[in-house]
Structures are given as structure tokens and as C-alpha cells.
Amino acid sequence: MKVIVEDKSSEILIKKSKFLAFAIKINNEEYAERIIDEYNHKYSDATHVVYAYVLSKPAKERCSDDGEPSGTAGKPILDIIKKQNLTNVLVIVVRYFGGIKLGAGGLVRAYAGSAKAVIDECDIVELVFGKKVIAQIPYDSLYLYQNNENYRILNIDYSNIADKKVELCVLVKDEDSVQRIRQVSSSFEDLGEEVF
Length: 196
Fold this sequence. Notes:
Blueprint: E1 2-4, E2 8-14, E3 17-25, H1 29-42, E4 48-55, E5 60-64, H2 74-83, E6 89-96, H3 103-121, E7 124-126, E8 129-138, E9 151-157, E10 165-172, H4 175-184, E11 187-195
Antiparallel strand pairs: 1-7, 2-3, 3-6, 4-5, 4-6, 8-10, 8-11, 9-10
Helix pairs in contact: 2-3
């Protein structure tokens, strides 16, 4: 499974209808539902606010046509997400009707095309389960964690470089790797399991 690195948006115009698409990184259903509510409010003047999302833990998928004919909007978006082997992503497509009906086939193509366009804008990486930790380490050992498949560095704080130390915020894939970074750390904080 794969995830998007950051939120993205795109826009396409089809027969005078404007489709605004948004790909949003999510980690739970509550957050997804809150974002959907926000977009429904923000785009209350739109004809339709359609969405689909997939989560990995717990496994869940959901979609809505928001008044479009059944199966012509949310399901095509969901199919694109699944075809791209993505998880922990919410795709919302906002439609402003342009006065020309697209028909069922045209709607499917428009919503699937909008979802594909916004996903194509995203940087995509493999899904990683692991522990998120913050560790203060000697600067000269930083190279051990860079470009290492067992560690995904999220942030490096160089504010203690005068003491020849850096603080890493890092996703660690397995317990052995957690122990290795803990052994060289002058301070260590385990922030629990994360999905990235």
C-alpha cells in the first residue's frame, strides 16, 4: 500500500462544469469526516461535493455521490484510489454545474478523471508502520540514519549543533532499529505507533 506525502489540489473544466479536486492525507475516520464537513461548508455554493476515502487501520473505505446519479461519482473516485493502491487518503471533488448535462458515462469519466488528476499531482511513498521517535544524537552519527530504509527522517533540528548534537524526529520501522537509535541518544522520546 502507498500514501500521499502531502495534500494537493487540481482543477479541470468539462463542458463548462468546473471540477475542483483535493487529495488529503488522513489517518482516521473522525478526521476524514471533519474535513468532509469543512468542505461541504466551504463549498456550500457548489452543485455537488463528492468524496471517497480509504483507511488502513482499521481497514475502511467510504464514498458518497452527494446527489449525483448512484455510482457515477463517489465510486469512480474510490476505484481510482484503489487502482493506485493508496490508503489513508481522502479525495474530494467539488462540482460547479456549467449548464450542460454530462450523462452517466460522462459523470463517471469526469469524477474519475478529476481524482486521477489530483493524485497525479501527489508525491507517493510506500506505507510504513513504525514508531515515531524524537532522539538527540551526536551530529557525526547522523549519516547512519539518512538514506537508511529502517528510518524515515521527518525533521532535523540543528539548534544544538554547537554541542555537536542534532535532534531527529524520525519514523523507525522496527524495534531493533528503535533500540539502535536509543543507544546513541542523549535524550529519547517514543511518540508511539504512526502510519506514514
